[in-house]
Amino acid sequence: MKKRKLKRKRGQRRALLKSLIRELILREKIITTEAKAKETARIFQKLVEKAKSEKESQRKKLLEWVKDEALKKLIYEIGPRYKERKGGYVRVIKLNRRISDGAKMAILELV
Q: Which residues of 28-58 are buried (b: 16+ CB within 10 A; e: fewer)?
């Protein structure tokens, strides 16, 4: 499986994705570049699957990506919200390019 590098080293890329996932959980809608949005959506899908699970062992794997109030919201609000849904928890809406550098922008929001 090929992952996006986002022009960052492993640690920096992981920290960036953690912060994007945390903000997505807390705000339920963020604006970022298209590549970051797609990579965040890919990881977020897996996290919601684990949050939906009733098994404590699956939920412990969430600690790797989210902590504190974001973890509580993911387990107690977002997980049960998508209990009946099979997939497609996140929507990526493409926007116009950013004026300053021409980067492709996107809105990432929960469905």
A: eebebbbebbebbbebbeebbebbbeeeeee
Domains along the chain with CATH numbers: 10-110 (3.90.1030.10)
Phi, psi values for residue 97, rounded to 5°: -70, 150
Q: By three-state DSSP, how is residue 41 classified?
A: helix
Q: Are 58 and 50 in contact (CB under 8 A)?
A: yes
Model confidence pLDDT, tens digit, residues 71-91: 999 999 999 999 999 999 999
What pTM did the predictor assign? 0.91
Confidence at residue 61, expressed as pLDDT on a 0 to 100 scale? 85
Q: How far is CA 38 from CA 1, 22, 67, 72, in A?
A: 14, 15, 22, 24
